[in-house]
Amino acid sequence: MNSPISQFFSSGLFRWLAIGVILLVLILWPTGAYNGLVELQEQTDSQWGQVKNAYQRRMDLIPNLVSTVKNYADFEKSTLENVVSARSRVGSIQVDEKMLNDPQKMKAFEEAQGQFTSALSRLMVVAENYPNLKADQQFLNLQSQLEGSENRIAVERNRFNEVVKLYNTKVRTFPGNILAGIFGFEKKAYFEGNANNETAPNVDKLFDK
């Protein structure tokens, strides 16, 4: 004689219950996985906004910096021209979320920012030869703001790379890659700058007495 448990497992009710559980899993897993991808994509876009804000803050300092330095008529003209030119190249690049899916555009943006950083570093090195400029309060204020901007850029870039790593891992690994392919979640580009481009201008030492 079959036990009640054996009868249950052999009954139609069990089969329907099993089918229901399978269907529930098939519905809940894609929903949760999709929502997870959306959440990571939103985090990536949000952090990209923080990176752009940090870079823009540095950009906004340059007109006042150039204007202050110009007050010293004998300041090396080519150094200022290089800063203005590098800033212009950065400004000519269209920056949006689509760039994150295009490694070549991301690389071009990063290279332009690296050239801008180098031009600013050169300006600070040349400023060492101008004691009056180094003592100028306006220049000191801008120097402090520039240093803060460079530090913020480094922080936001690192945070961006961390979020992108999480997102890319989810997009590329099974079974998330299945949903990513169906719904068009694409791998995003990292910041891959070399040590020179990552290094902020060392401006503190220029004002040591």
3D architecture notes:
Helix content is 76%, strand content 0%. The protein has 209 residues and is an all-alpha fold. Helix 2 runs antiparallel to helix 3 and helix 3 runs antiparallel to helix 4 (103-127). The protein has a single domain (4-207), classed as LemA-like domain (de novo design (two linked rop proteins)), CATH 1.20.1440.20.
Q: Kindly give the count of domains.
A: 1
Question: Superfamily at the CATH H level?
Answer: LemA-like domain
SSE order, as H and E? HHHHHHHH
- The name CATH uses for the topology is de novo design (two linked rop proteins)
Number of helices: 8
Give the helix/strand layout.
Blueprint: H1 4-9, H2 12-70, H3 77-91, H4 103-127, H5 131-135, H6 137-172, H7 176-183, H8 195-198
Helix pairs in contact: 2-3, 2-6, 3-4
Give me a quick take on this structure.
This protein is an all-alpha fold and 209 residues long. The chain is built from eight helices and no strands. 76% of the residues lie in helices and 0% in strands.
